[in-house]
Amino acid sequence: MTTQIPAALFADPAPAPRLERAAAALTAHGFTVEILDDAAAARARIKDLIPEGASVFTGASETLRLSGIDADINTSGRYQAIRPHVLAMDRATAADEIRRLIASPDVAVGSVHAVTETGSLVVASGSGSQLPGYAGGAARAIWIVGAQKVVPDLSTALRRVEDHCLPLESARAQVAYGQPSAINRLLILNAEPHPGRGTVLLLREAIGF
């Protein structure tokens, strides 16, 4: 049965029992899950999870930006940061190299738009650039997820993407790129078949969209 959640509540952090149900279901589906207090804890944990010198691609994410994780990865010099590297490349002449770099880093780091209590991760994208790495191209993937993104089931997750995330991301994209966003591509990760590859840092606080 689908659980109806008013769109206004998609910004509210899920209580502890729902976080624990989601974590248990994700773990049963092959993901590695850690429940952390807040974004500061995730920021510290990331440094333990990613070896120095690894090639790392960060997906465009308000969670990463607000937590400081994006800056830690892309400006610290600790890693081979892919995002600033490809942004400096000529997209007309180096498109194939850009595509390969983004699709197969050592580590892909980002967030998702919804986590279900039944153990699925849902990611929507306008360009799709982050999705190959998330889906399996990266050797490892790490997602930092605010507590407000936990929903009961997949149908509620899709409604969260459309009713809550898309308007917020469109407003951000309009300012950043001069045009609204769209749900052009949608990735649903129902399980992780390779043990240790996918890690979810599930926060007790709300952060991001």
Would you mind describing this structure in some detail?
This protein is of the alpha/beta class and 209 residues long. It is 40% helix and 20% strand. The protein contains eight helices and ten strands. Strand 5 and strand 6 form a beta hairpin. The longest helix has 24 residues.
Order of helices and strands: HEHEHHEHHEEEHEEHEE
Q: Averaged pLDDT, please?
A: 95
Cα-to-Cα separation, first versus last residue = 25 Å
Rg calculated over all Cα atoms: 16 Å
| Number of helices, where a helix is a run of at least 4 consecutive DSSP H or I residues | 8
Percentage of residues in helical conformation: 25-40%
Give the low-pLDDT segments.
Answer: none
Number of strands: 10
The main β sheet shows up as:
6 strands, parallel
Strand order of the largest sheet: 1-10-7-4-2-3
Q: Class by helix and strand content? A: alpha/beta
Q: Which of globular, elongated, flat, extended, rod-shaped describes the shape?
A: globular
Strand portion, in percent?
Answer: 15-25%
Explain the layout of strands and helices:
Blueprint (H helix, E strand, L loop, with lengths): L15 H13 L3 E5 L2 H11 L5 E4 L3 H6 L1 H7 L4 E2 H6 L7 H9 L3 E4 L3 E3 L4 E5 L5 H7 L2 E6 L4 E2 L2 H24 L7 E5 L8 E6 L6
Parallel strand pairs: 1-10, 2-3, 2-4, 4-7, 5-8, 7-10
Antiparallel strand pairs: 5-6, 6-9
